[in-house]
Amino acid sequence: MSSATGADKIKVFLSNDALKLRKDHRIVGYLIGPFPDKLYQVNESGLPLQLMKEEVRLLLNFQIINLIRLDVDINQNVVEDYNRHLNTSRSDYTKLATERRLAQIASHVDSSKGLKRRRQDSSKLDSFEGLEGELNQLAESERIKEQKVSIETMNNDLLPVQLFTECPWPRKEVVINDEWSFPESERDILLYSIYQDLWKRGHYITCGLKFGCDYTVYEFDPLVAHAKYMVKCQSQMSDLTGLQILILSRISTQVKKELLIASLDNNQEAIGRESMSIRGEKNEHNYKPIYFITMAGGNSGGVASGGGPYNYSYIFKYIIIGDMGVGKSCLLHQFTEKKFMADCPHTIGVEFGTRIIEVCGQKIKLQIWDTAGQERFRAVTRSYYRGAAGALMVYDITRRSTYNHLSSWLTDARNLTNPNTVIYLIGNKSDMETQRDVTYDEAKAFAEENGLMFIEASAKTGENVEEAFLETATKIYQNIQDGSLDLNAAESGVQHKPNSGAPGGQQHGLGGDNVGNKNECAC
């Protein structure tokens, strides 16, 4: 299944594809095209189907669609063909519009004639009045001619043109899945993580803009059922004021939906929820319940409190790469949750986790993208390399094949990330020493030869897991301090939160320099 691209607007033009997305994958999108015979009304829409950014990312991660760019050689013949198509389409519509308008006028004239005839029969009008009727009929005929001329001379800019559902000219189709960069910002990551969680639970999800929220959630197809939830995505619950909750509650009550306020912590699964209800004085107004969901299991990263709109000074983007089955997801889970997942399923596309750490007195939020190791997902996961400040490259010390493939992973990392990306080599499963197939010395030699940091770790016991993530962050922070990492560059993989106060009253500019005493950091 393919989708056409236009800037960041992804559209599906074929009805069979749109139906398949809805029936098989619960992807709703929204129709933006007019019906051919109802061009200027806004109550009904038709193809093409435009997809939300969250829907596109989900479909790409599960390899359901391909994004296609059509490279057409725009030569003189193509231009002439297109102009002929415009003229033919406009001419056809003019004829159709003229016929319909004249038929409408004729029906009005016929009804007017019938009314006048009945009046003549009832009042026995004389010949003078009959002559007046003929004159009126002649005037109607002239008005019909005027209408016809006005339609035929309509401005071309006001005439619709039939769109192509498939490019009619010779073209080259280029798959550009890895160019789809959403989500990039912290807000986008929050939205997509919550969207993905709700979708995995079997819901239909649409844009909630008309209700003043982020999503509307349906338990069944929106064609057969109303939405059950209004979803408001909130990065920090403390930022949501009582007035905002009250406004959202009143809206949800008015439209007969339950309000769901969701936030993201460290993982992707909603582990529980709290609910509350609001009642007016003397129980005159019964509001719908409000549900608060936290996506993940607590502040395992030691989240700081107080002091401004953010409780961290920087955001570092990490990616974890390596062959399937080397334990990338287990390392992420051990780092964010301090737990080992014995039955960890293979990652499909990408997964996501966060944790707030402290480096040199600075609170730093790590955004960690866990990529799938299967070859069939490489085109999808490559888009996540861009803008990564740190890359953890993992192999399994008990499987030499995963070590032999490191050169390929390193090539991707070097080609797709910025030159200052910190790459850390991790030999996982160090607890399985008796089954070792790759020696420590040869892996260390590989790391030194390629300028990588290196450690062996165990996602099962937790040995050296913390060290790998923290040492990567420390190196990134050092690069900020010595100026080798430009925070103003979009590909740096680092976001600075200028409003958050550093310990001791220090503040950091965009260049990473301390206004306070720089020597106090012992990194």
UniProtKB/TrEMBL annotation:
Q: Where is this region: Disordered?
A: 492-515
Membrane topology, from the record: Lipid-anchor
InterPro entries given in the database record: P-loop_NTPase (IPR027417), Rab14 (IPR030702), Rab_GTPases_membrane_traffic (IPR050209), Small_GTP-bd (IPR005225), Small_GTPase (IPR001806), tRNA_endonuc-like_dom_sf (IPR011856), tRNA_intron_Endo_cat-like_sf (IPR036167), tRNA_intron_Endonuc_cat-like (IPR006677)
Which Gene3D superfamilies does the UniProt entry name for this protein? 3.40.1350.10, P-loop containing nucleotide triphosphate hydrolases (3.40.50.300)
Cellular component GO terms, alphabetical? cytosol; early endosome membrane; nucleus; phagocytic vesicle; recycling endosome; trans-Golgi network
Give me the stretches of Gly residues compositional bias.
502-514
Q: Entry's Pfam families?
A: Ras (PF00071), tRNA_int_endo (PF01974), TSEN34_N (PF26577)
Give the source's domain of life in one word.
Eukaryota
One GO term of the biological process aspect: protein transport
What CDD domains does this protein map onto?
A: Rab14 (cd04122), tRNA-intron_lyase_C (cd22363)
Enzyme Commission number, as recorded: 3.6.5.2, 4.6.1.16
Q: Which GO terms describe its molecular function?
A: G protein activity; GTP binding; nucleic acid binding; tRNA-intron lyase activity
User: Where's the tRNA intron endonuclease catalytic domain?
Assistant: 191-269
**Catalytic activity as recorded in UniProt:** pretRNA = a 3'-half-tRNA molecule with a 5'-OH end + a 5'-half-tRNA molecule with a 2',3'-cyclic phosphate end + an intron with a 2',3'-cyclic phosphate and a 5'-hydroxyl terminus; GTP + H2O = GDP + phosphate + H(+)
- The UniProt record lists the TSEN34 N-terminal domain at 8-68
Q: Work out whether the entry's keyword set contains Nucleotide-binding.
A: yes
Q: Which cofactor does it need?
A: Mg(2+)
Question: Keywords in UniProt for this one?
Answer: Acetylation, Cytoplasmic vesicle, Endosome, Golgi apparatus, GTP-binding, Hydrolase, Lipoprotein, Membrane, Methylation, Nucleotide-binding, Prenylation, Protein transport, Transport
Q: Provide the protein's localization.
A: Cytoplasmic vesicle; Early endosome membrane; Golgi apparatus, trans-Golgi network membrane; Recycling endosome
Q: Hey, which family's this protein in?
A: Belongs to the tRNA-intron endonuclease family.
Q: Which PANTHER family match?
A: DRAB11-RELATED
The molecule here is called Ras-related protein Rab-14
